[in-house]
């Protein structure tokens, strides 16, 4: 093997290592990680069909729009026929300051592709909001 080849290979490895070290700088917005974690924790409650816990964990906008009784009934009607959640893959995370029908604020909009035992092609949309530095809380949930 020629001596020059070893130097080129070493240089290529150094450049490759340097580019990999730079990847953490390309990490996603910390707001996205926080919103995703909050959405997944809340969805775990709905997966367990725990209407009381998911209602309590939701934001005040959610709780102001629906009573616990209606949420319990709606969650049962919505989720039980779908069967068990098998996989959930985050498809998109976006942010907005304004959402029609809601006060201006800090909103995260997450879309998941979800496979249920009885519906292999579902899409879940979860809307979250937070006060300044507070935790993200679910204010909207839709399954299509």
Helix content: 40-55%
Radius of gyration equals: 21 Å
What is the total domain count? 1
Provide the CATH superfamily.
Answer: NTF2-like, domain 1
Report mean pLDDT, rounded to a whole number.
Answer: 85
Q: What is the tally of beta strands? A: 4
Question: What is the CATH topology classification name?
Answer: Nuclear Transport Factor 2, Chain: A
Number of helices: 5
- Based on the coordinates given, report the CATH architecture: Roll
Task: Give the uncertain stretches in residue-range form.
Answer: 5-26
Distance between the termini: 60 Å
Derived from helix and strand composition plus strand pairing, the structural class reads alpha+beta
List keywords for this structure.
globular; 4-stranded antiparallel sheet; 144 residues; alpha+beta
Provide structural commentary.
This protein is α+β, with helices and mostly antiparallel strands and 144 residues long. The protein has a single domain, classed as NTF2-like, domain 1 (Nuclear Transport Factor 2, Chain: A, Roll). 44% of the residues lie in helices and 29% in strands. It contains 5 helices and 4 strands. The protein has helices spanning 3-22, 30-47, 51-57, 60-65, 68-79; strands at residues 85-96, 106-116, 119-130, 137-143. Strands 1-2-3-4 form a 4-stranded antiparallel beta sheet.
Element layout with pairings:
Layout: H1 3-22, H2 30-47, H3 51-57, H4 60-65, H5 68-79, E1 85-96, E2 106-116, E3 119-130, E4 137-143
Antiparallel strand pairs: 1-2, 2-3, 3-4
Helix pairs in contact: 2-3
């Amino acid at each position: 093997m020629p001596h020059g080849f070893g130097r080129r290979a070493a240089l290529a490895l150094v450049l490759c290592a340097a580019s990999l070290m730079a990847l953490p700088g390309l990490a996603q917005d910390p707001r996205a990680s926080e919103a995703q974690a909050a959405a997944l924790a809340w969805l775990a409650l709905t997966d367990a069909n725990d209407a009381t816990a998911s209602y309590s964990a939701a934001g005040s906008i959610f709780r102001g729009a629906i009573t616990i009784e209606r949420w319990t009934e709606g969650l049962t009607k919505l989720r039980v026929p779908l069967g068990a959640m098998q996989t959930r893959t985050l498809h998109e995370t976006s942010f907005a300051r304004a959402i029609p029908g809601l006060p201006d604020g800090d909103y995260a909009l997450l879309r998941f592709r979800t496979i249920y035992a009885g519906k292999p092609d579902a899409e879940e949309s979860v809307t979250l909001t937070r006060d300044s530095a507070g935790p993200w809380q679910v204010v909207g949930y839709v399954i299509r």
